[in-house]
Amino acid sequence: MNGPRRTLLHVFSTFAVGGPQMRFAQLVNHFGGSYRHFIVAMDNATEAFAKLDKSVDATLLTVAIQRGKLLVNARSFRKVLRDLKPDLLVTSNWGTIEWAFANLDGRVPHLHMEDGFGPEEANAQIARRVWMRRLVLRHSTVLLPSRRLFSIARDVWRLPQRCLIHVPNGVDCSRFSARRTPQIAADFGIDTAGPVIGTVSGLRAEKNISRLVDAFARVVQRLPAQLIIVGDGPEHANLVAQAVALGISDRVVFTGAFSKPELILPFFDVFALSSDTEQMPLSVLEAMAAGLPLAATDVGDLRYMLAPENHPYLVKTQAEPLSDAIMALLAEPVRARTIGQANAARASGLFDQELMFAAYRELFEGRRPRTPNS
User: DSSP 3-state assignment of 122?
Assistant: First the structure.
């Protein structure tokens, strides 16, 4: 890179480990020392900072925030922008919208990223949020990783097309070509004698892992299967109790958070997703790259993401059809492997991380990348 390094101010509602935070780590670790990064976590949770490489020039900033005090916060945020003078303000999701309001005069070039919605907006947009986005994002660059979000930003928020850009998430597809390691099976108690259904997910309400546990209870009535749940979150205790109540706790493994899903995915015969709402989940891209077939609720961009061969196994947001989809894939292992191979080919062709890196490099440099929807 020629010239002085650009300074980027990134604002997250939380910098705990999650999808947007892991994508951020993936990006900045790839770019190394190319930029100076300042990071604000609105809730002061900063666990994701540990995911950044030592080569990354990143600093955590503490900013005084008063919940529900828009004007007070705007003054505080404007002072940060004046003092820091970043080349680019990068905000992430609804929880950081007050920073866009503080930058309403456009003093700092602004990139806003929307990854999806919490359970409160799973089925419908909240009117005051629509109006706020419409007001404060009209002169920003708004990045949407999913086609569905792109349509919402254009048709519901009514943002000008010139503001919007679609950059799909990407993963390191080569990382997910690992083979089974006996030690991993031993470490996590994976039973390789029978079929294994698995998921990788935050254990939060909108992920509705409870639906998957219900679906699995139907499966295990007919097959000596095992369910592997990789991830952690506030729903963990409830899910454990549910498995006990259903009498299947001996067939359900909770691994907790695990930073190397590529080591567990090879043990899955079927990857399951049971969410109420998604946009373009990284876990699905990782499962595709690992060559897995999916049984999943038909949410977000999954129908666009997955190979057409996998489309019959996208179902309504209900436990019974999800169970039926899992059973159908387990009943035809040859077809399931063919679907997994098609998913892997689609992941490497459309969603490899190098394509994402190239687009974000342009955005971080203040340029607009060429993308299909932009």
Answer: coil
